[in-house]
Amino acid sequence: MSISFLWSGELLLNRYFLWLLFWSNLLGTIGGYVWYDDQLAYTWERYPHWLIVFVPDSPTASLFFTIALLFLLYPPVSRGWMGIRHLMEGLAVVTSVKYGIWASAIIFAGASQGDIIGPLDWMLVASHTIMAVEALLYIRFFAVRSAGLTVALLWTLLNDLIDYTYGINPWLPRELFDDVPAVRNFTVALTLGSAAACWLVMILSRKREG
After folding, report:
1. Which of 60, 64, 29 is nearest to 138 (CA)?
2. Looking at residue 43, what DSSP letter applies?
3. pLDDT, position 6
4. Mean pLDDT, the chain, as a whole number?
5. Which residue among 49, 147, 157, 196 is least packed, with the fewest CB closer than 10 Å?
6. In whole angstroms, what is the distance from residue 193 CA to residue 105 CA?
7. How far apart are CA 52 and CA 69, in angstroms?
8. What is the rounded (10 degree) CA torsion for 208, 135, 143, 88?
């Protein structure tokens, strides 16, 4: 399969392929929320209930991307729905790139300090890498604008602030318990870098196609 075939969108915009991606991401999203079940229950019992929405980071990113795929399959025509589409697509690409990279980086950071990478960890690395890659592949087909990316950046920074202020960040490998400040700084930097990468890919792809 050639790079030009992928870049042309002949495969990526094929409706059968889009439906395959949609159901794969939807099932992955559901599985992600199940994965967070213990932390969701822990947060609900010990923290203000409004914080619960900020706990499952990766599944929510996957949910945004799933909704963005649905908008590709059924493009809206009304102005109101177009605004929702722009917002969902901005959130989809920024959070998918950010949390796709973050999860893999944290697994490898834990391994560098002695944690064992098992089969489940490799599955997480593979699935989260796919999250980041598919977001960067599809951003040029999305209707997202700079305003949508800006809102997504602000939302993700807010999520970072709440995660590390209230201590509801995703549970880390035991080996990283002493490195929470470094993880926090890396997380914020990755949010900024992800938004910048998405903006750059959007601009370059539209210049190329224009």
Report:
1. 64
2. H
3. 56
4. 93
5. 49
6. 14
7. 25
8. -160
Work out the average pLDDT over 44-67.
97
Give the DSSP letter of residue 54.
Answer: G
Q: DSSP assignment of 142-208, as one string?
A: S---HHHHHHHHHHHHHHHHHHHHHT-SPPPPGGGGGGHHHHHHHHHHHHHHHHHHHHHHHHHHHHH
Question: 114-149 burial, b if ≥16 CB within 10 A, otherwise e?
Answer: ebeeeeebeebbebbebbbebbbebbbbbebeeebb
Over residues 112-139, the pLDDT tens digits come to: 999 999 999 999 999 999 999 999 999 9
> For residues 176, 156, 71 and 197, what is the CA-based torsion angle, rounded to 10 degrees?
-80
The whole-number pLDDT of residue 206 equals 73
Q: Mean of the pLDDT values across residues 51-74?
A: 97
pLDDT at 210: 57
- Reading the block at residue 43, the tokens are 């947060």
Q: What pTM was computed for the model?
A: 0.93
